[in-house]
Write a sequence for this structure.
């Protein structure tokens, strides 16, 4: 049964006979998709299984059975990777469509088991001895390799998070939001370095066309890390010294602003504009509060109202520009 | 009724419909453009991300204006002040929608919620000052306010508030009846939810719900959820204890409520599969988790890790079986992705979710590092002890 609206449009001559036929054909053979339900199921299954195994290992740490559990985890890991290796599509520097959602999540299960295996080995037997850098470096390399070899975006983001852990910081979205960690100089520079590094990686995967679709994840993490690090740096230092940070911010923001137009991405445009607004407002408010308190508060409100209205106009303008451009 | 231009809304619905066909290449670009020209939409609706930005900015501007006037006039809060701000925001909302034709632009979304919060706060402050403490009256006020805003602006979250406050009215009114009311509470709430679900499904046939399609989806889901929750063993028992101020070991009709707790989610899924109704299936899946948690709360058949491993394996096997079984679509059901959920895809939500929830496991090696005294690279996690 075809929606009467299309028949109506057809009667008005707005839709050709062929298009109407196309639509009719589609509605006749309409399938009901349980794609997202199945995906959620797989996700839940993998999470429950690996969490359960993780708890089991740590609960049995002093008993004999822990070796059996460890063996089981190792077997699951090998089985998952063997299955994925058998079912994978051949490697290509382009995007490789995954064979099925099942494939993606079996690969995830294998990776998670590998991580708990390594983590447990280090905890119990200290296989990496006291070279703690190695204990995080090897899983990271493994994650990157898996992500590229099997073309898995989820594992790529895990790899990025592990890269950060290796550098001594944490970048999962929740931790970034909570981020109490910008209070010391070293963390600041680490975040900034990682952010810029990721932006460079994003640039290279785009321009050399090597796993181009990975560039979004790199770029996304890179933008947030770099901006947050610079803004925190700006507030960390004294007024005069902090102006250097503002200058760095300006350069990065300008570059990313241009880049978001090149990528035609509303998301990155929005992010850049909002972070810039935070930086500029930070500067304005910090400057205002040199004045007497009673006046500065009034002026601060006036600033927020005025700048807010300006930015609304700017955003609407940018929306038009990017849409048509 | 609805504040937005109805012709434009109708055209928008039509264009959305054609756009789907256009994206699937069933309608040519030329035809699509002609239809767009024939059925113009004059709304200002920016890109989703711009909408988020405008939402934040509108919020900042509105709050700053409030703060500025408070500073200038030296007002001290209070309900008169809150009510004034609420009305002012409402007037601003009406102007942007009526004169600037904003529709889901972020500006109207923000002003709608600011209005609602100010007015609700004004009422709360007024009754507090008057020492008039009635849950029933508060629920009624919220219901009237949110119903008005839903009907006028067709906002989906607002319709959720309206439904829940309506349920609240029934709850508090029934509670006031006395012991008999408390004893029959689960059945009353179940009856109400079922009735609401039935009414919403019926009303989909009429054209007046056309502009409220989003609200109708949310209302179906929430009425299914409250229908289940009203008969869930844990909810019935805890709510009964709270209302009677007792702590019971078991409840009357325990068997009935247990059956309800465990059967209803499965019934939703089955019914949803029969009717091809995504809302029923998804509510059912969600409530399966609730059922499992309720069961575990009272019967500890096995330790947590074993339960997780077993259910995880079972779930994986079911999915594996479904993938095999539906390799070629059967009974008109497929596991292929038919829709193009552009937003999910644009932001790569799935990958973010994986990295967020598996970081506890993914970070395992670093945790061990911290436990061993935190070496050079050992300070993983948020604390990062250098």
């Amino acid at each position: 049964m075809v929606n009467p609206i299309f028949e109506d449009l057809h009667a008005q001559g707005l839709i050709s006979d062929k298009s109407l036929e196309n639509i009719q054909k589609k509605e006749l053979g309409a399938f009901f998709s349980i794609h997202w339900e199945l995906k959620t199921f797989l996700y839940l299954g993998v999470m429950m299984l690996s969490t359960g195994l993780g708890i089991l290992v740590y609960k049995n740490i002093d008993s004999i059975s822990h070796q059996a559990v460890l063996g089981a985890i190792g077997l699951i890991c090998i089985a998952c990777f063997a299955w994925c290796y058998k079912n994978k599509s051949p490697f290509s520097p382009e995007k490789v469509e995954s064979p099925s959602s099942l494939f993606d999540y079996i690969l995830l299960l294998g990776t998670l088991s590998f991580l708990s295996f390594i983590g447990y080995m280090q905890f119990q037997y200290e296989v990496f001895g006291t070279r703690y850098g190695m204990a995080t470096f090897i899983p990271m390399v493994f994650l990157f390799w898996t992500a590229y070899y099997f073309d898995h975006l989820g594992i790529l983001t895990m790899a990025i998070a592990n890269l950060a852990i290796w550098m001594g910081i944490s970048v999962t979205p929740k931790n970034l939001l909570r981020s109490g960690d910008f209070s010391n100089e070293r963390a600041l520079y680490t975040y900034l370095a990682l952010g810029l590094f990721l932006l460079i990686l994003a640039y290279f995967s785009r321009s050399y066309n090597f796993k181009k679709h990975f560039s979004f994840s790199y770029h996304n993490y890179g933008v947030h890390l770099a901006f947050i690090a610079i803004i925190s740096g700006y507030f960390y230092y004294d007024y005069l010294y902090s102006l250097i940070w503002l200058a760095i911010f300006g350069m990065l923001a300008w570059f990313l602003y241009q880049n978001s137009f090149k990528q035609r991405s509303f998301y990155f445009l929005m992010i850049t504009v909002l972070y810039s607004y935070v930086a500029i407002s930070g500067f304005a408010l910090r400057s205002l509060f040199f004045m007497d308190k009673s006046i500065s508060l009034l002026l601060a409100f006036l600033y927020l109202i005025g700048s807010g209205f300006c930015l609304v106009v700017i955003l609407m303008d940018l929306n038009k520009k990017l849409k048509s451009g | 009724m609805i504040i937005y231009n109805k012709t434009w809304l109708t055209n928008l619905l039509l264009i959305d419909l054609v756009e789907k066909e256009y994206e699937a290449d069933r309608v040519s670009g030329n035809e699509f453009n002609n239809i767009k020209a024939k059925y113009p939409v004059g709304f200002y609706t920016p890109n989703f991300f711009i909408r988020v930005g405008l939402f934040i900015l509108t919020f900042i501007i509105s709050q700053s204006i409030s703060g500025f006037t408070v500073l200038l006039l030296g007002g001290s809060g209070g309900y008169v002040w809150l009510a004034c701000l609420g009305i002012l925001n409402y007037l601003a909302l009406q102007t942007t929608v009526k004169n600037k034709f904003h529709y889901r632009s972020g500006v109207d979304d923000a002003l709608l919620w600011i209005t609602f919060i100010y007015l609700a706060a004004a009422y709360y402050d007024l009754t507090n000052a008057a020492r008039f403490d009635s849950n029933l009256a508060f629920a009624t006020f919220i219901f009237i306010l949110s119903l008005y805003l839903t009907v006028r602006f067709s906002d989906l979250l607002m319709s959720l508030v309206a439904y829940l406050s309506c349920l609240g009215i029934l709850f508090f009114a029934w509670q006031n009846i006395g012991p008999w009311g408390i004893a029959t509470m689960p059945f009353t709430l179940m009856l109400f939810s079922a009735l609401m679900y039935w009414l919403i499904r019926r009303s989909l046939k009429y054209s007046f719900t056309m502009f409220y399609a989003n609200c109708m989806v949310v209302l179906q889901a929430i009425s299914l959820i409250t229908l289940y929750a009203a008969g869930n063993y844990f909810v019935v028992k805890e709510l009964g204890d709270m209302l009677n101020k007792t702590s019971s070991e078991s409840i009357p009709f325990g068997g009935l409520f247990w059956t309800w707790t465990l059967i209803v989610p499965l019934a939703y899924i089955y019914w949803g599969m029969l009717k091809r109704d995504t809302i029923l299936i998804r509510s059912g899946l969600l409530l399966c988790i609730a059922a499992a948690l309720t069961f575990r709360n009272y019967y500890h058949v096995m330790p947590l890790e074993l339960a997780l491993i077993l259910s995880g394996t079972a779930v994986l096997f079911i999915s594996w079986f479904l993938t095999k079984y539906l390799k070629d679509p059967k009974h008109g059901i497929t596991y292929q992705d038919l829709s193009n959920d552009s937003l999910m895809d644009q932001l790569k939500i799935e990958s973010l979710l994986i990295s967020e929830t598996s970081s506890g496991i993914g970070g395992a090696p670093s945790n061990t590092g911290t436990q061993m005294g935190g070496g050079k690279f050992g300070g993983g996690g948020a604390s990062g002890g250098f």
Observations:
- Chain B touches chain A through 100 residues (CB under 8 Å).
- The first helix of chain B runs from residue 6 to 23.
